[in-house]
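Hello Y.,

Per our agreement to keep a running log of every chain we model this quarter, I'm adding this entry. I've kept the format consistent with earlier entries: sequence first, then predicted structure.
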Amino acid sequence: MSTISSKISKQLAEQIIDGTYPPGAKLEERSLAEKFNVSRTPIREALRELGSRGLVEVMPRRGVVVASIGVKELAKLLEADCELEALCARRAAECMTAMEKKELEFIYEQSAEFARNEDTAGYLNNNRQFHALILAGAHNDVLAAMVADLRERLAPFRQAQAQVNDRLAVSHDEHEPIVRAILGGDCEAAYNAMRSHHARLSNHVLRLIRSRQDEDA
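Predicted structure for the entry above:
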């Protein structure tokens, strides 16, 4: 998918999640092309991407419409992501090399400055590196592929975290026990700390989706 299509897909996903495009709303290629000032090709690619994530669906005689986001199905995906990320942390505590642990410690310390300066872009980039290091530190390609697939499917819902007060500081504080456990080789503590971290994020996403559906009811 092109860079333009990716940007359009991300923006549309955010607008679907925040209710700008409610369930059942029709997404026409022509009007979207005019809105984003592009040809229909990147719009078509963006809609295919949204379809793969379950955010839109093709309806007979209606075309592409915003899907009704099933809370139960979303909850299952978030639960699976929570457990797999926690498992990665447990494996990382057991399998990470000394150099990998040093890199994780450096990334964690670096994130403190981003959080303190409320540098969202810097922190989110750092956060991606943080979680990628833990995933790599698990040294399990099958587990890595499963987590990558879930992250891709849940990416638009994760954008909801922008509404959390003191988002960066809260995230950084929750990373501290994860890092401490991994560096200390405490597998169970690493599992529990990562699971708690993702559970909070997941619960916020589910509350947001439920509130959107209540508003539309």
